[in-house]
Amino acid sequence: MHGEEARKHYFFEAFKMALYGTTLNRDVTIKAANGESMKALKVFTEALQYLKEDALKTISAKAGRELIASDFTWVLTVPAIWDPSAKQFMREAATQAGIVTKGKEARLVIALEPEAASVWCKKLPAEGFITENHGGYKLDQSPGTQYIVVDCGGGTIDITVHEVLDGGALKELHKASGNDLGGQTVDKKFKEFLREIFCDGVWDE
C-alpha cells in the first residue's frame, strides 16, 4: 500500500510504549503513520479485541466446540515499569474489548511481563540454569535454585529475581524493575548513528 491509498489508513507501530511516561486519561491520543491521531483507548481496545477473537477461534477449533470469553481467566501482561494508571488503562481497554464483563472483573489478571516469564521458566529443564546436581529435573523441582529473568522486549527491558521453594512456588528476591531501553530504542539510536556517518539527507532518502 503506497501513496494516497496508504494515507487513508491508520497504521500504529510500537504503540504500547505510548502509555509510558504519560498522564493517562480517556482522551489521550497517539499518532498514526499517516500523521492522523486517534484515541489511545480505541487503538488498544481494537488490538485486544482482535487478539481475543483470534484466541477464541483457535482454541474453539482445537476443543471442537464454541467457547466464549467468559469461559476463561485471562492474563494480560504489562511491563514492570508501568505505573498503576497504565495498568488501569489496560484493564479498561480489555473490558471494552469484551475480554471481561461487569461483575466478572476477577477473570482478568494483570501480570508483570518478567514475572510471567519467570513462571514459564520454572517449568523448563534445570539443565542450562544450573551446572550440577540438576538430575534432569525441572526448575520447579529444584528448591533453592535462584535465577534472574531478563526480558528484553521491543519497548522495555524488565528484570526479576526469584528463588524456587519447596513445592515449586516462587519467592521474589528482588522487586521486578526495568527501563525503556528495549529494541526500539536500540533501533532509534542506530539510525541516529547512521545519520551522523552519512552526508545530510542520504539516510532520509
Structure description:
The strands form three sheets. This protein has a three-stranded antiparallel sheet with strand order 5-6-7, with helices on one face. The protein starts with a helix and ends in an 8-residue tail after the last helix. 18% of the residues are buried. Helix 2 crosses helix 3 (84-96). It has one domain. The mean pLDDT is 85. The protein is globular. The chain has 205 residues and is of the alpha+beta class. The protein is built from five helices and seven strands, in the order H-E-E-H-E-H-E-H-E-E-E-H. The protein has helices at residues 3-7, 40-63, 84-96, 113-121, 183-197; strands spanning 29-31, 37-39, 74-78, 108-112, 146-152, 157-164, 170-179. Belongs to the heat shock protein 70 family. Keywords: ATP-binding, Nucleotide-binding, Stress response. GO terms for molecular function: ATP binding; ATP-dependent protein folding chaperone. This is Heat shock 70 kDa protein 12A-like protein.
Task: Summarize the SSE layout with pairings.
Blueprint: H1 3-7, E1 29-31, E2 37-39, H2 40-63, E3 74-78, H3 84-96, E4 108-112, H4 113-121, E5 146-152, E6 157-164, E7 170-179, H5 183-197
Parallel strand pairs: 3-4
Antiparallel strand pairs: 1-2, 5-6, 6-7
Helix pairs in contact: 2-3
